[in-house]
ABC transporter permease (Marinicrinis sediminis), 270 residues
Amino acid sequence: MSKWMHRMHVGITMLILILVTLPLVPLFLGAFSLRMPWPQLIPDSWSLRAWTYMFSSSSGTGEAIITSIGIAMIVTLINLILAIPAADALSRYQFKGKRWIEAVLYAPIIIPAFVSVMGMHLTFIRLGLTESVFGVVLAHLSPSLPYMIRALMISFGTLGFEWEEQGRMLGAGRFQRFRWIVLPHILPGIIAGSGLSMLVSLSQYLITFLVGGGQVVTIPILLFPFASGGDPTIAAAYTLVFAGLAAGALWGLDMILNAYYRKRSRAKSI
């Protein structure tokens, strides 16, 4: 039975890896082809044309990568500051209207994106926030904040108040209780929420296009014209770059979490 279960787990893992990596194969082939007319799966000839263009000084790819990462990091930091007290209140306290507040917070991921974006765009025009990085950052908070709150609510939901009460009885102040009791417990939620927040921010095209007004250029802004029929080869190359940014962000957050737990385990062993 043990060997059968092991083989089943290995088989399921391999199936998941195949399903995840299979869509990347045509993208990889297309990114290194001279041209790849539909519906061909194998290119007629190979070329670095897409990569030469993408990393040329005129393409603006480098600036778009820096802008995309910068906006995603700022959005994630603001989300974290807003989500920690919100998730704490929604998970560990009971108060009137709690369900309505949750419904409002989750509305951006339930209501069709086009509806919320158009209302946001009109409001930002009146406030003079369009065509600026600051406006794009504020706009990215709406679709990404609910994921951060949800991830932290799961962590806060298993915390309770007992450990904090014990810390208070031992003389720990509010900041000390948060630093040594709350923060270590919710760290997995912070990492998970940060990963989701960065992915959602990195992938925003419509919000960035409308609020940024073409002045704030991110990777999706560069990718979309090629993906919509301009040049599938360059679109494939940009898609691989975007996938690399997303994977790099998740890998970095995973490294931070692993380093933290290794440090904790070394401290406990001492």
